[in-house]
Amino acid sequence: MTDFRKLKPDQLGTLYDSFKKTVESYPDNPALRIPKKKDRDYYPEGFEITWKELKIEVDKFIKLYKASNFGVGNRVAILFNQRPEFFFHYLALNSIGASIVPVNPDYKVDEISYLLEHSEADLFINLQTKKHVLEEIDYLKSSQLPSIEIDNFNNIIPKLKNKPIAEKPTYSTEAAILYTSGTTGRPKGCILTNEYFHNFGLSYITKGGLLQFDEGKEVIYNPLPLHHANCLSISVPTIILLGGCLVFPERFHASTWWEDIYSCNVTSVQMQGIIPNILLKLPANSYDNKHKVKFALCAGIEPNHHEVFEKRFGFPVVEMWAMTETGRLISDNFAPRKIHTRSFGKVDNGVEAKIIDPDGNTLGANEPGEFVIRNSVKRPRKGFFSGYLKDNKATEDSWQNDWFYTGDSAIYDEDGYFYFLDRMKNIIRRAGENIAAAEIEAIITKHDKVRQVAVMAVPDEIREEEVMACIVLKDYKQASHEISLEIIEWCREFLAYFKLPGWILFMENLPIGTSQKVQKVNIFPKNIDPRTISGTYDL
User: Fold this and answer.
1) pTM: predicted TM-score of the whole model, two decimal places
2) Are the beta carbons of 216 and 241 closer than 8 angstroms?
3) How far is CA 269 from CA 35, 304, 333, 402, in A?
4) How confident is the model over 496-515, as pLDDT tens digits?
5) Calpha distance 250→37 (Å, rounded)
6) What is the rounded distance in angstroms from the CA atom of residue 221 to the CA atom of residue 178?
7) Which of 44, 77, 154, 243 is least crowded, fewest Cβ atoms below 10 Å from its Cβ?
8) For the segment 212-250, what is each residue's pLDDT rounded down to a tens digit?
């Protein structure tokens, strides 16, 4: 058995190096698995491939890419929609030092065009089903960027005119550019190295406590997309290091969740906070407790759902905190856990953290401020992202006085446990009071007629900002002024008067991204005052 605590990310080389070691150790273990789904346009009967078989496929693409002059310094953009073929390209490109740029399949024409141009991709791999979108991208025509469908390689990759940089890829070589889903302006491209990915995987594997891994035996189920850090940065290096198996459906499906977990012999799960909420609303199922899941790693589970979920489904949900940029996670994986709060635990090896005020002063226990982290005082940026592509100013703005500014509002208690409050941008400033949208959302979600809620700031001519709640009821037909008053009275039992919503709008649904997070930025059209929308109740 490997002692992962002794492994150093800067000594492991590339992800492909670790991949080769796993192939040698666990050649016949399943590496990737996709559950059955009859109405899927690819692998409707499911898919499985062993580590040995995966290497055969990867080696084919290594030869193709080498023959086409790809190497260190090249980038390949891939729009793949959870296809297992993604790994053939990813590991092949990693072996020769080229980088990938995952493209969200839900992106529109302008968004895809921006990623291709900004990343200066040398090749674009895409899907036949997206042909109608790609035909509208002017950049593909003007730049003459080679574009190939993932199913139509025919053993030919357009040859690059320039020869690759003559150097061997190492731990510090760029492995991927992941674009963050920014709420303002264009997404920023995070430059991620082999060291970053190894660091993230090791951070997870070595946590201990409730997060216990068995080398060569783990089956991780992650319904979140591979173009997001939760899956690509955490799950993928974890299974490569462990010789485990990654199970990834094309997206989260509540109706088949437990059947997938049972049929795929899943041992651990990764998810976002909205998923437990949805699963708890499902009727009892014969698969609910017919599983082998030891734990779930979850970001943002509602405190009032936490204990209920664990008791119903029989495994602990470990709250965690991470960002694309950080290359490590923090989790509440040791007893006594704070499951009735938003605590994400204490820091451990490779992480230093504190809370600061707007002037950068360190705050004490129970004083809310911005959560900032680093690796150590000597090597603050070790294992983090290498910077934002073509945006040195944004990179340096995110690092101040050798601390990474997360943009998250948090506190810590006398025992060193950190508690998430909200994204700084989701703090509502009403008449001098700072109000966390997440706190109000947690209370409204408890109401038995509410399915989902998003709380945000709207302008107020007197108070600077006012609280608005966009609510999805279990039965939309119940939407009325009377229900809005009922919800306000419910909130009044738990919240100070200044936190009560001043405006309520009932909606049939809220926009959900591929990471299963509510996209508040997409709820209303730009330049629209939500207070003026028909059906909004003024409270």
Assistant:
1) 0.84
2) no
3) 14, 20, 14, 34
4) 788 899 999 999 999 887 66
5) 9
6) 21
7) 154
8) 999 999 999 999 999 989 999 999 999 999 999 999 999
